[in-house]
Amino acid sequence: DAQSERYRPQFHFSPKAHWINDPNGMVYYKGTYHLFCQYHPESSVWGPMHWIHATSKDMVHWQEQPIALYPDSLGYIFSGSAVVDVNNTSGFGKNGQVPLVAIFTHHNSKLEKTQPEQVQYQSLAYSLDEGKTWTKYAGNPVLKNPGITDFRDPKVRWYEPQKKWIMTLATKDRVTFYSSPDLKKWARESDFGSDAGAHGGVWECPDLFPLKHNGKDVWVLIVNINPGGPNKGSAAQYFLGDFDGKNFNAYSKQTKWMDYGTDNYAGVTFSNTGNRVVLMGWMNNWQYARDVPTPKWRGATTIPRELGLKEANKELYLTSTPIKELDVLDGKITSLTNVDVKGSSDLTAKTGGKYDTFKLTLSAPATNDFSVVLANEQGNELVIGYDKSANTYYIDRTKSGKTDFEKDFGKRMTAPRLSTDKTISLTLFIDVASAELFADDGLSVMTGIFFPNQPLTKLSIKSATGTSISKLTYTKLSPSVQ
Ligand code: FRU
């Protein structure tokens, strides 16, 4: 249907039809990246959850595969993770085969009314054919509910110093860490967060992993939260700290936000990618996910982002930057230097623009306001800019087209600028109906979806005070969707 297809992303994963939410079970194995997502194969709104499956050689070109996990007598298949059980600790591998093991939440809706604190528990499924087909473990569930209504989204990783698995689980207003020798028997280690971070909503989809900083491990704990995000609805906060196989000790109990935009939720990282840490989120927000104007399919993932650490103003922050592999999409590149802007400069002709899938990078002095305006003949516009007096970046959807499906959609969202560099550098990915902004080497990140009435193919730079863009490149991006 034309209405649904005109917002179809061209280089992001989206389901051919029907509803997706959280990315699940992302794992790299034998040259293939696997992505699963929360999926309702019968409608384009949320319902009994399955795991849809997609595979890729580069995290950029995704191919939809048959559904991996179906609901069963223990419940719907909620979010979770997958690991490569190299040592066959689970014993699922036969004749030297390495099992892929998925650890997920079963959500038993039959118990919602009578025993709400028993609805969610953790279970396993395994694959012995490199992720093609999955068998549920006969001993499910492997982690029963101790009486907590929100008890879900297990993210499991191997903790080499103590040769055990660590599960990071969202348990209502905190995360709880469990450990296991074999993925089947789990012991509670500790919890974190009832007195830390943002608590505007329930904690969901956590992740825990180390990143190197000055030769030392810094542990990152990502905690998605809904609602209570910095620009309303769902968002991803994180903490930095130490982890010793039992406790997570945060350097600070204050929340930091991985992405200030409204549309990067439930993001977690791939397993088995070595020292490289790559995250993808669900490019949507629970505030309006059910109502976005794509009635035949709903939901897409963000571009994959490589995570790192960087200091700014004596604070350490998590950074997100587009993965290198995305360069495969690069088409014609136009580079401009020293573009003087006073008022408004239309760059559509100069950049050979007229596309609605492109990448824009630019460098500009941090001493002046400026904005990138994407527009069409109908007067729809999406404005992405820097506000000098507030020292914030913003994405403004006020006039972006269809906004009335939710009252807060057509607004300006903001992110603080954390860098103190004199020059601002921005990278912006536009894919028909989404904008992903990476500022200052990924220190300030914003993701926002939008629904123009016609494609936004006009590009201009505005600056009321005047500015000079020292370098600007406009790269047409080709579709990766098969
Ligand atoms: C997050 C979430 C998870 C849950 C899943 C259900 O978006 O609410 O906590 O497992 O979605 O679809």
Protein architecture, described:
Strands 23, 24, 25, 26, 27, 28, 29, 30, 31 and 32 form a ten-stranded antiparallel sheet that branches. The chain has two domains: 15-322, Glycosyl hydrolase domain, family 43 (Tachylectin-2, Chain A); 327-477, Jelly Rolls (Sandwich). The radius of gyration is 22 Å and the shape is globular. The longest helix is centred in the N-terminal third of the chain and has 4 residues, at 2-5. With 482 residues, it is mainly β. It starts with a helix and ends in a 5-residue tail after the last strand. 1% of the residues lie in helices and 51% in strands. The model has no long low-confidence stretch (mean pLDDT 97). It has one helix and 32 strands. Bound molecules: beta-D-fructofuranose (FRU). The site of beta-D-fructofuranose (FRU) has 12 residues, from strand 1, strand 5, strand 9 and strand 13.
Topology, please?
Blueprint: H1 2-5, E1 18-29, E2 32-40, E3 50-56, E4 63-69, E5 76-84, E6 100-107, E7 120-127, E8 135-136, E9 151-159, E10 164-171, E11 175-180, E12 187-192, E13 202-213, E14 216-226, E15 235-243, E16 248-250, E17 256-259, E18 265-269, E19 278-282, E20 297-298, E21 305-312, E22 315-322, E23 330-346, E24 357-365, E25 370-375, E26 381-387, E27 392-396, E28 412-416, E29 423-431, E30 434-439, E31 444-449, E32 458-477
Parallel strand pairs: 1-20
Antiparallel strand pairs: 1-2, 2-3, 3-4, 5-6, 6-7, 7-8, 9-10, 10-11, 11-12, 13-14, 14-15, 15-16, 15-17, 18-19, 19-21, 21-22, 23-32, 24-29, 24-32, 25-26, 25-32, 26-27, 27-28, 29-30, 30-31
Beta-D-fructofuranose is lined by residues 21-22, 38, 49, 78-79, 105, 152-153, 204-205, 266.
Protein name: Glycoside hydrolase family 32 protein
GO cellular component, one term: cytoplasm
Pfam family, one: Glyco_hydro_32C
